[in-house]
Design a protein that fits this description.
This protein is an alpha/beta fold. Helices cover 34% and strands 21% of the residues. The protein has one domain: Rossmann fold. Strands 1-2-3-4-7 form a five-stranded mixed sheet, sandwiched between helices. Strands 5-6 form a two-stranded antiparallel sheet. A hairpin with a 6-residue loop joins strand 5 (107-111) and strand 6 (118-122).
């Protein structure tokens, strides 16, 4: 198996992934991919886009919505199945678990001018329930898939998915 790694992946962020590839005897050339971050040469129609956590994914579907949507459309137009592998861990094992995600940006601490004490106020940051609905819509609309793993298992999961062991 040969897995191409997108050249925009930060070397420091993928050290453990590359170590897993090396341990498994998988060649991993680095060059720019049209979409996503990882591709098996044997099946260039299946691409994995790695996300650090749900906060990064949330940022992609909110602030970077247009860029993210264009990437999904580009994949769809080229008959590429995009799989987003989210390294979240902490109880997020499948898409339905996203409903219970607590966005770290949801609460903001500030010092009350009246009391001088620290207080927490709710912000308008996205809830897990809203993010879940958006991700379900994207799966339906663009044919992509959102999978989840622990950071320590990312390399192993990339190999499993790209070798065809992850079916709908």
């Amino acid at each position: 198996m040969v897995i191409q790694i997108d050249s925009r992946e930060k070397a420091r962020a993928i050290t453990k992934i590359v170590e897993t590839f090396d341990r498994c005897g998988i060649k991993h050339p680095v060059s720019k991919l049209m979409v996503g971050d990882y591709m098996n040469y044997d099946n260039p129609r299946l691409i994995i886009d790695r996300k650090q956590n749900l906060s990064e994914l949330c940022n992609n579907v909110c602030q970077d919505h247009e860029r993210f949507r264009k990437e999904l459309i580009r994949a769809q137009e080229n008959d590429i199945k995009m799989i987003f592998l989210v390294e979240h861990g902490k109880g997020i094992e499948r898409l339905e678990d996203v409903i219970w995600w607590e966005n770290p940006r949801r609460w903001k601490r500030y010092k009350s001018p009246e009391t001088g004490k620290w207080e927490e106020v709710e912000t308008k940051a996205m809830t897990g329930e809203t993010l879940y609905k958006i991700l379900c819509t994207q799966e339906r609309k663009y044919g992509c898939k959102f999978l989840f793993c622990e950071k320590k298992d990312t390399g192993k999961e990339i190999i499993r998915i790209l070798s065809g062991d992850a079916h709908d």
